[in-house]
Fold each of these.
Amino acid sequence: MITMDRDTRLEKVQEGEALFRDKACTHLCVAPASITAPWLAAAVTSLWDIQKSGSVEAGVGDLRVSEETAACVGRVLGSIRIQWLPTPDVVRVSGGGVVLRWSLDKDEVEVAVLPEEKVLLTTLSAGEIAESYELPPTQYLRVNDVLNSLVGPS
Amino acid sequence: MPFTDDPSIADDVMLVRVLRYASWAYPKEQPTRPASVAFFDSNGENSCFIVNEAEFDKLAEKFPDVKYGAVAAGQARAAGFYVSRDDDGADGLAGHVILGFNMPDINGLAKYRKAAERLAKGGSIYVPYLIK
């Protein structure tokens, strides 16, 4: 199951008409994510496809992505507050990890989510790694800063 | 038992990684080398094969239409990886080795990511000759 953090869901509610608290959840369930962030719907769909497939393949590695890791990817995605972004590539890595990559011109932002909630944020320029550091769960919002730098002021 | 570098695998020995997905090759449209994600196994243990020992007909049966990313053992070592035989690890497929990375305690994941990038950039696409 893929989850996003509560703040993101509340933002989506607040963008629509005023709702009573008890109806908000229903409203969220039927509102497509693409209304608020087109890239997010594509990313979540790709993540879902990756999570429901994959097996242990001798000679390649363990290509399964656990629910916990997919949920962690969901939390990273849910922490992003930027509406307009390029659709990220969602790439499986062996050993149960997922890499999200946003590319614009020669710049890239990459978030690798590995099992046990290990998250690595990497920025690349012209194919060279500019920065790479681990993100603890309390700092997923920092992805917004680097993505803002990627797309520039909106 | 943990894997360690096997010096009997000389630096000029060519190794291939099965590029299981199109996204594991770079660039996607017309790949010229493996992508860094191909050498970024979450456990730090990337399954590879020694070119001169691999049975490419069997690999082709198992993984039809895949590309292979090639690196020399010496390139892998220079990037910070170890190369270790793992005869039992590939379901009977010959020439299986682990191209592994021991993650340091400090900034280990970032260092692994940089090592994977360095290795991938020195790699190429290997096309095996198969008799049909």
Note: The CA atoms of residues 33 and 77 of chain B lie 18 Å apart.
Amino acid sequence: MLVRRFSISALCVVIVCAYFGCSKAGGPDNNTTGSIELTYWPAPNVQEIQLADSIVHEWNRIHPDIHIRMQPLPVSQSSEEVLLAAIAGKTTPDVCSNINPAAMSEFTKSGGLVSLDQFSDFDSIASQRTPRPLLETFRSGDGHYYQIPWKSNPVMMFYNMRMLREVGVNEIPKTYSEYFAAAQKVTRDTNNDGQTDIWMGERDVRPIWWQRLFDFFPMYIAASDGKTLFDGTTVAFDNEYAREVMGFFQEAYAKKYYPRTFFQGGDPFLLEKKASHFSGPWEVAVIQKFAPSMEYTVAPLPVPDSHTGPVYTSGDFKNIAIFSTTKHPKEAWEFVKFLVTAKHDAALLEITDQIPIRGDLLSNPTFADYFQRKPVMVVFAQQAPYTRGMDSAPDLKEIFDAISQEYEACAVFSRKTPAEAIHDAVDRTKVIAEWNK
Amino acid sequence: MSLTKKRTAYLLVLPYVVYFVAFVGYPLCFSLILMFHRWDIVTPMEWVGLKNFIRLAADRLFFKSIGNTLIFLLIHIPLQIAVALGLALLLNSRIWFRGFFRAVFFMPVVVSGVVVTILWQQMYAYDNGVFNGILSAVGVPRVPWLVDPGVAMSSIALMATWKNVGIYIVLFLVGLQNIPRELYESAEIDGATSARQFFHVTFPLLNPTIIAIVVLSTIGGFSLFIEPYVMTGGGPMQSTLSAMLYIYNQAFYFNHMGYAATLGFVFALIILGVVVLQRKFIETEPT
Amino acid sequence: MTKTLKYLALAIGAVVFAYPFVWMIAGSLKPEMEIPNLSLWSSNFSLTSYAHVFERIPISRAFLNSMFVSCSITALVVVLSSMVGYALAKLNFFGKEALYLLIMFTMMIPFQITLIPQYVLMVKLQWTDTYLALIVPSMMSGLGIILFRQSFRGIPDALIDAARMDGCSEFTILFRLIWPLSKPVILTVAILTFMASWNDVLWPLIVIRDRSLMTMPQLVTIFVTGGEAESQLGSLLAAATLLALPVILAYSFFQRYFIESMASTGIKG
């Protein structure tokens, strides 16, 4: 009796496991009779789902014969891993709008993507929307385009204007010297307990690779007028610019303008304990939510004193691609074109506050209303043409990890000179590149 | 023995045999194969011969991570034994609320390591953490608990001691209760002070317990992972990068499955080596 | 005099071990600016931080996942390990000694060596992002088998033979005769297994990427390390409190069993 009860409950456990196990595995259903069905994966955050929802709704109304099914990208630690796993398992959607150009080489290496330049109108559509030099940076090593640039989040410097004004700084710093001159005044101990409590800036000092995407990397792009870590496939950051940037951070920590600890007890920019903050357009909404009374300005990143001309930065690009599992590449391409029309770029701005990668943001009347209502976003729109993405090198994470280790040793703890740190980082990058060939 | 009984016996152990083949035997064999390959899970496996071992031999970070793990053990184990023994001695007398105290000291053991890590990370904060708050209140300079390369691993070891000491208090209590009362009585008649009693009666008789504790916490300490993973990410200056964290990073951050299997294999050999050495060393010691 | 010192030392010890938990609970209720204070009281207690946690991560789903996974594992381990333990203790069959040695061997292999290939196995079986990956690899426990074997050996053979005379099958003997006599060891194995699986983070981090399937400690870890807390300290503490509370509650009811089962094996939680 008891035995039976036990085997029954054990069986139940097994069945329940199997049920939950399989409920995940049941892939996309076959399309309904006659009409075509395409699957579209947008990024899984609330705003982008809302955007995708409205665009897909409109498409389905106009195109009764081509039905788009919107499924947010399965949430995970990184969407690149999900996509790679999907490529391996042949469960990719037809279209995805959360393609990180840095992972491009992995996607194409495993043969997951359709080249877009096979469509005769690709070049005119893409170049009309995105300035040619920027568009070129998204061309893959084999000369083809597997992605159409969609949106970016340029990393810029947020300044707390009240904190600067308090110590008599009225001009936004443009160069390293100006930045440090301001830093010297801002950084201080306000309650006389012998501990600095106001800083010029702060970065998470833990050696986490992606943190460098918000300090070293954009500052290097800025200092070098748009260079990235690689030139084609050769390591290309063994130069004066990289050393200058490393030197900048070393000085910031050595002179204690940046705390050498990681700050616990909330975001110090939101708590108005640091005067400058590397961030992107998403920060605007964060400030609105957590520190609505803060008085702030967004400006290009500081550059070396000798620098002239426009200031570049990194943009966290997210592009659109079509996967090779699609049975209907033509229809998928039609949908992609639908996503990047001026009308839907306006919706992208409106709903997500992210910047479409197009040259006419400030001249096209379609967007005028938005920028009038959100003047702070104008700065990001002006910055957008001067952004660079991450290199499409395999094992970029590992390379950024190596840079992080050197950043920590050199900038945070001053155990190495900038020249040594860059030299070691370049060496290590070469080893990684060699190993992964 | 009847045939049906024998058949039932096989039926009873069958689940284990299946389990063993699938989750121990197969992975063991597969890891032996994987060590000679390069594999990122997505693209097909590629035979690389001894390349993973050559890479390992020159991998400064791997050896550093093993060194870090050993440093952790060297701080953690003596500290743990001292604290556990001290509190166990206090508890091992007729006092009020004995059960209450034991329960409180044991509490961190049952709580998830993640909770403990989050808590201590806040308490270790340099500027506004609880510890530095207390220190500066009594006029002692602040300690850079987690941000100085020379201090961070000790801080993690201190936290791990706090987390696990409850188990060892209980083990010591069992050990202490097994010491015959008569031994103390005769020592008292011989006029031994309590210090002498401790060193000549208590400590030697607790030796088996201490051996068990050393071996257990060595094995546990080698799997140090979640604490540095959450608190420091392995920094500052790689000083808290434990071997497990390094292997995890290689496998699941950088997708070097083959290389991570190689690291895991070599690391497992090192663990076995240390445990065997420890056994030998401790067991030959006079009790 | 020494007595007072003793109590003083113990009281300090108790504060050292209990204060952090109380501080955590207080901090999760306090407004952001007041958290770093040592004090445990604030006139501004609120549930804002909890609201933030519930808004950002599916924590109640994670609780149910953890419950389901840990209960399944515990049930499986108790049933399956007691079966093997019984065979080893009371039955004779070819290969018995070899099996016992195999179990001891398995317990001595550092898990570091099988971690990667086990993950690969999960990928090959397409079990990643399913409950199967969380449950099946833990459904057996070498330690459980050893504990059951030891305990069952103490049961007199005469009792079992008598049951056999009555025509009971070995399964009936195990579950109807032996189990009721072995409640302490069942409880020990159950507590140890449940605690280990409830608190495990490394394995879920590896095999589960889908947030709706994550276990509670895993979800909280990702919440803390992944920036979703938006650097809100109160939310971190609230998430930690939610994670700790079920265990602390269970512990406060059954603390004697927790301590005894741990002490009987000396295994870390």
Note: The domain at 60-284 of chain B is CATH 1.10.3720.10 (MetI-like fold).
